[in-house]
Amino acid sequence: MDLAAFRVRARSGDRGGHRISLVMPAKAGIQGTDEEPASSSTATPDSRLRGSDAEKGCRRGVAGVASLFAMAVMAVASAPAWADPDYEEVSGYVATEARLFPNDPQFSEQRRHDISIVAEPEYYAEWEDRSSLAVSPFLRIDSADGERTHADIREALYRRVQEDFDLAVGVGRVFWGVAESQHLVDIVNQTDLIENVDEEDKLGQPMVNVTLLRDWGTLNVFYLPYFRERTFPGRRGRLRTGFVVDSDTAIYDSGARHWHPDVAVRYSDSRGAWDYGIYHFYGTSREPAFVPTFNAGGTVVLVPRYDLINQTGIDVQYTTGAWLWKLEALFRQGQRNIRGEEENYGAWVGGFEYTFFGVGESDVDVGILGEWSYDTRGSRATRAFDNDVFVGTRIAFNDIQSTEILAGIIQDLNDSGRLISLEASRRIGASYKLSLELRAFAGIPSADILDSVRRDDHLLVEFAYYY
Amino acid sequence: MTRKTIFAALTGVLLLSTAAYAETDAEKGLRLAVEADKADEGWGDSTSEMIMTLRNRQGDESVRYFRGQNLEVDGDGDKSISIFDRPADIKGTAVLTHTHKTGPDDQWLYLPALKRVKRISSANKSGSFVGSEFAFEDLSSQEVEKYTYNYVSEEACPGDSGASCWVLERFPVDENSGYSRQAVWMDQDEYRVHKIDFYDRKDSLLKTLTLSDYRVYLDDYWRAHRLEMVNHQTGKSTELIFENYEFGTGLEDRDFDESVLKRIR
After folding, report:
1. Is B231 on the interface with A (CB under 8 A)?
2. Of B63, B114, B124, which is closest to A175 when you measure between CB atoms?
3. Quick check: A202 and A189 in contact, CB under 8 A?
4. pLDDT band at A40 (very low <50, low <70, confident <90, very high)
């Protein structure tokens, strides 16, 4: 469950839009010479904007996939052991998903419900010399929102386990963090936000990753040569901003735009009951700010702008008995706040998970979760978790069908805003799985950043076939 | 015969008889458990494939395929990784366990959909392993220190009247265990366990595990290839078949570090 998505969307609501445009002149003054002026984005040939959402989504998807694929091919071609694999397999899933919205949409172009199909096959090969290749393309076709119809290479990664280090080259996915209510310190991969508001779907990230495994811990070094832009719903989609995000015309802090070479170094280890990691990231922020701009058609759109940032993050977990104690924290420099001013800030999320195993002599485990999120920028924060408490429960039935439920409430401590969510899943037979997700918004103040999604309570039903 | 030798001989006889007399059932139980543990020392590392078939009272079946990697650790509990292949929706899910002779084990879960490595609580001893009749504690490394012992009797091995077995009772040290005690049938030739009766916390018979199809590896190490766990209280059962056991696979300590889970397949 993650509220960041809502912050982004809500900010484009009428009020948010006003606020941003008021600070535009100040921001223009701050902008360095290496940055494209905002006007260039409006001057971009924008036939794409006039085309249907579907065309647009597809075209960008194909271009993105093509460039990723080129990198993957390069990675594979450089593999010293390129020969017939000693082991090969194909797996994956196909699914159909419906999102049902009980309330009429807030904006006239929005379709009420949507249905989509999704596929994510995976090819995996392994060689005797401890090298491997994993390739996993992804495609979704959506009935309502052309932006949500998109393709990606989730993974195209060549790995080689050496005596002294592990090497991974290609397109990969990396997860950092310990918390459940949000993934604050997870930064390597861009969020595929259009997939799900929980921010757990990520775009494949081109990378070279070297891992050193030593007695003193694990050191991971990442070189990230290519930046992926965040995906956003189009004008027909629900759960969107008031002004639509035009993700074809992003602005960058760096003159190298999406070719800015980002780097990250992370040290992690486990000692006794403690698991911990600390990292530094320098590069393009995965989280955009928004610049309201008139597009060629005379419509106001939000142009994402990506700052160059330095970020230091830690994640710690202390595990004792049935208790898990968790903390994620970061310090970020270079990111503009919601007023468009650069502001160094800290943010953290911390809490616990306690599990009652086998309640009432059954096999059912019931976990209680509590987490508190804080952002030192307060009302100037670009994420929704400026001061919020999450309370939830995780129920694992430990039955043959692996039935699971995760339910929770995120309560804003500064106002009455509240997000309620429930996720449940159950396997059917050997190869099918049914998943439900319910999300509802309550008590959102009229001036709140969540304003543009206040009518977007929804139930998501997914039926998937795994092979 | 000098006085000195007589004295020595007498002392010897006395000591011997004292030893024989003084070995209580608890001491004999512990001695046999230690001997069995010693007999299995030095296996190093192994890999295997497992097929687990869950059956309910009506006879409905559900099958899980997974692979195991195991490492013997000198002076502490063993390390292991289990990687799931089927059902397909949990394919790639892996569990890493560092067992300890004393104190709680360390356990990590790898979730392939998020590429997330999660340290999990190991307090869940008695919980069901993936919906089966095996609890986590039934499948974890059986270290001597995890129980206290009591020798019960000597009788023909269940399922093999030609061999004779010791019957031991063992009592879990960990208060999170789901059992008050276990009765173990172990043969006198090779210290192979043939059967275990599990008694729940109310001391009524809960489950019976039958181990069979023993094969020897590296001339010394016996491994059962068929385990059948029957739950007497629910009528459910789980069969666990081991295939393709391999020893000396070259796995080392660094292959069981929590940070390698992200590349586990």
Report:
1. no
2. B114
3. yes
4. very low
Residue type, A206: P
Kindly list the structural domains of chain B, giving each domain's residue range(s) and its CATH number in brackets, ordered by start: 37-263 (2.50.20.10)
Name the residue with tokens 């082991």.
A87
Residue A190 to residue A173: CA distance in whole angstroms: 9
Domains recognised in chain A with CATH numbers: 4-466 (2.40.160.10)
**pLDDT tier at B15 (50, 70, 90 boundaries)?**
low
pLDDT at A451: 86
- Residues A123-137 pLDDT 10s: 999 999 889 999 999
Interface with B, mutate which of A186, A319, A466 (most B CBs under 10 A): A319
Query: What per-residue string of b and e applies to A121-131 under the rule 16 or more CB within 10 Å gives b?
Result: ebbbbbbeeeb
Tokens of A201: 């779907």
For residue A91, the chain B residues in CB contact (below 8 A) are: 88, 91
Q: Do B126 and A161 touch (CB under 8 A)?
A: no
Residue with structure tokens 């006039």? A50
DSSP string, A33-83: TTS--HHHHHHS--HHHHS-HHHHHHHHHHHHHHHHHHHHHHHHHT-TT-S
**Chain centre to alpha carbon of residue A247:** 15
Distance of alpha carbon B88 from the chain centroid: 28
Q: Which amino acid makes up residue B97?
A: T
Note the pLDDT of residue B216.
Answer: 96
Among chain A, residues having any CB pair with chain B shorter than 8 Å are: 91, 93, 124, 126, 132, 134, 159, 161, 166, 168, 173-175, 177-178, 200, 211, 213, 218, 268, 270, 275, 317, 319, 321-324, 355, 357-358, 363, 365, 398-402, 427, 430-431, 433, 464, 466-467
Partner-chain residue, chosen from B54, B88, B259, that has the shortest CB–CB distance to A268? B259
What pLDDT sits at residue A67? 58
CB pairs under 8 A between A and B: 101
Q: What is the per-residue pLDDT across A194-248, written as a single tens digit (0 to 9) for each?
A: 999 999 999 999 999 999 999 999 999 999 999 999 999 999 999 998 899 997 8
Type of residue numbered B80: S
Asked whether the predicted pLDDT for residue A271 surpasses 90, the reply is yes
Query: Can you give the pLDDT at residue A31?
Result: 34
Handedness of CA A250, A253, A257, A258 (dihedral sign): negative
Q: Cis omega (within 30 of 0) on the bond before B87?
A: yes
Single-letter amino acid code for the residue at A429: G
User: Tokens 């006198």 identify what position?
Assistant: B188
ipTM value for the complex: 0.86
- Among the partner residues B131, B176, B265, nearest to A400 by beta-carbon distance: B131
Q: Which of residues 185-204 of B touch A (CB under 8 A)?
A: none
Asked if B129 and B140 touch (Cβ cutoff 8 Å), the reply is: no
Token reading at B94 = 């892996």
The two three-digit tokens of residue A369, written as one number: 């979760």
Query: For all residues of chain B together, what is the average pLDDT?
Result: 91
Query: A91 burial class (0-12, 13-18, 19+ CB within 10 angstroms)?
Result: middle
